[in-house]
Design brief:
single chain, mainly alpha, 18 helices
Length: 451
């Protein structure tokens, strides 16, 4: 297969790529979703299954997606177009590139709105709004935020502008510069939050909850939730890892990068749990509080603890940074496609892609208030978009990536990209051909409630 050069530049080093891809993977899912689904599914046993799924599903598909990106050196759409042509495969395989780009575009349209909540809460907590507040007051504040389309639209707009300003600057001056700042700050903030959790007096209760498995609390549904989250948390199937892989220097090890990214992403999720659960337990709150854990339960805790205003503000700042680092990767595939196929400058492409994403996001804004009673197949606009992307598009994207890398791409090409025919390569090749597709297919069936 012919070697190509990226039209958009390269990361300055393997570590720059690892930081960027980790930033893509680390997002609201790690800090918002992982703690509450762990709480809902019993703690330690769920974490153990989650880690196993990262190893068997997440890492093999991540390596495959990085590899396809570096082989193609273009936007996901053109990468798949070239790889399909050179593999002399069925032309329909090129739609895999479109699937990732469209999924990332749709996800960012509502992700930006949720990130706006985090931005709003940073200022709310920092101002002392929740000092001494009870559950009714905090719930009323959250409901009031959702009921105001003007406020939601304002935060959605600010977050999209922040995202596009980074992406418009290009690979090194924009994406790489942003993650070199954001990711270390994110880890520092998390470490500060974990340190604070250690001072609550019940830190070991949080440790035991996360790491002592009680398999009697683990159900079949819990296993499927763990498998699904392990897949989704790594940003697989949405074009982000593929486009970031296209900027990876040729001499960098794809497998090593994949393990580092998965390890860092998992570490953030576990640190978030260690930061959140002791605070929850110290205040007599419920760890399985569901999606409201971050925006309702934790503000109650922060409002009633010593230095809660400071550490609450730090926590929501952390959430904003995590969302920002993910958002820039979600729009990058669409921007590169506009540059490559429509002859536009990067700034023009950013304006068009950003404006389209912002406009679609208005539907999510209104789905919490004016359009709350308008349903598509029984779901609000936001719920329908979330279901379409998370339950259908991403599993299909991951499934097809595994099948293409394992069955369609020539073994010669994958061997060359992954360093030759050694034991590690053979383990990856077996897993991506058999284990990962089967696991993702089971998650897909469960997600669409066929089983």
């Amino acid at each position: 297969m012919a070697k190509r050069q990226s039209l958009h530049g390269e990361w300055s080093s393997r570590w720059a790529f690892i930081l960027a891809a980790t930033g893509s993977a680390v997002g609201l899912g790690n800090i918002w979703k992982f703690p509450y689904i762990t709480g809902e599914n019993g703690g330690g046993a769920f974490v153990l299954v989650y880690l196993l799924c990262i190893a068997l599903v997440g890492i093999p598909i991540m390596i495959a997606e990085i590899m396809l990106g570096r082989l193609g050196r273009r936007s996901p759409i053109n990468t798949m177009r070239h790889l399909v042509r050179e593999a002399r495969a069925n032309p329909r395989w090129q739609y895999l590139g479109w699937l990732g780009v469209v999924a990332g575009f749709l996800i960012l349209s509502y992700y930006s709105v949720i990130a706006g909540w985090a931005m709003a809460y940073f200022f709310r907590v920092a101002s002392g709004m929740f000092d001494g507040a009870d559950a009714d007051q905090v719930t009323a504040a959250f409901d009031g935020l959702l009921a105001s389309p003007e406020v939601l639209l304002a935060w959605h707009t600010i977050f999209m502008l922040m995202t596009m300003l980074v992406v418009a600057r290009g690979v090194r001056a924009g994406l790489e510069a942003a993650v070199r700042l954001l990711m270390p700050l994110l880890f520092v903030l998390l470490a500060v939050m974990v340190g604070y959790a250690m001072s609550t007096g019940v830190f070991m209760d949080g440790v035991r909850f996360l790491f002592e498995p009680d398999f009697s609390r683990l159900s079949g549904t819990s296993v499927l939730v763990a498998m699904g989250h392990a897949f989704f948390t790594l940003s697989l199937g949405m074009g982000a890892i593929m486009i970031y892989g296209s900027y990876l220097p040729q001499n960098a090890s794809i497998a090593q990068a994949g393990f580092w990214i998965a390890g860092a992403d998992t570490l953030v999720a576990l640190m978030a749990g260690l930061a959140i659960f002791p605070i929850v337990f110290a205040n007599g709150l419920e760890p399985g509080a569901g999606p409201g854990l971050i925006f309702v339960t934790l503000p109650i805790a922060f409002g009633n603890m010593p230095a809660g205003t400071l550490f609450g503000a730090l926590f929501f700042l952390l959430l904003v940074f995590a969302a920002w680092s993910s958002a820039i990767s979600l729009i990058e595939p669409a921007v590169t496609h506009l540059v490559e196929d429509h002859g536009q400058s990067r700034i023009q492409a950013c304006v068009k892609a950003g404006l389209a994403t912002w406009l679609l996001g208005i539907g999510t804004v209104l789905s919490f208030n004016w359009w709350a009673d308008i349903k598509v197949f029984g779901k609000t606009f936001f719920d329908a978009l979330d279901f379409l992307t998370a339950n259908i598009m991403l599993p299909l994207g991951g499934l097809f990536i595994a099948i293409f890398a394992g069955w369609v791409l020539s073994r010669r090409d994958s061997e060359r990209e992954l360093g030759g025919d050694h034991l590690g390569y053979r383990l990856w090749h077996f897993t991506v051909r058999y284990v990962s597709p089967l696991a993702v297919f089971v998650v897909f069936l469960r997600s669409i409630e066929v089983i």
